[in-house]
């Protein structure tokens, strides 16, 4: 089971009410294994308390957005071309279509990181 909710506010009170409502309306709530968030939720400890066996994951869009924000020419001391290569490789790994493609891209990532010390 996965938890999906759309909240206007992600404060402690709203998150607490949302999790209690989910539990009330879903008798099998203990089977919840995963929930996705659209950003790095500051009160994630509430989710962890209410669903101790579930994992809170950052959605793919925000994961890639974070990489774009953190892998910069200035922060990493790399050229623009190396930055784009790195970001392209991360995106290709993320959207790989098979285990074989993923393994090949992971190997490329390893070679890239050995050369540039990024990943």
UniProtKB/TrEMBL annotation:
Residue span, ZSWIM1/3 RNaseH-like domain: 4-57
Record field: transmembrane: none
InterPro entries given in the database record: Zinc_finger_SWIM (IPR052579), ZSWIM1-3_RNaseH-like (IPR048324)
Name of this protein: ZSWIM1/3 RNaseH-like domain-containing protein
């Amino acid at each position: 089971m996965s938890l999906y909710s759309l909240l206007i506010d992600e404060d402690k009170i709203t998150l607490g009410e949302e999790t209690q409502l989910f539990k009330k309306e879903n008798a099998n709530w203990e089977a919840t294994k995963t929930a996705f968030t659209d950003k790095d939720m500051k009160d994630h400890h509430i989710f962890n308390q209410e669903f101790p066996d579930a994992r809170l994951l950052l959605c793919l869009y925000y994961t890639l957005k974070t990489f774009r924000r953190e892998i910069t020419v200035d922060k990493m001391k790399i050229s623009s071309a190396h930055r784009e290569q790195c970001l392209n490789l991360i995106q290709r790994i993320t959207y790989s279509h098979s285990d074989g493609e993923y393994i090949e891209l992971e190997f490329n990532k390893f070679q890239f990181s050995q050369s540039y010390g990024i990943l």
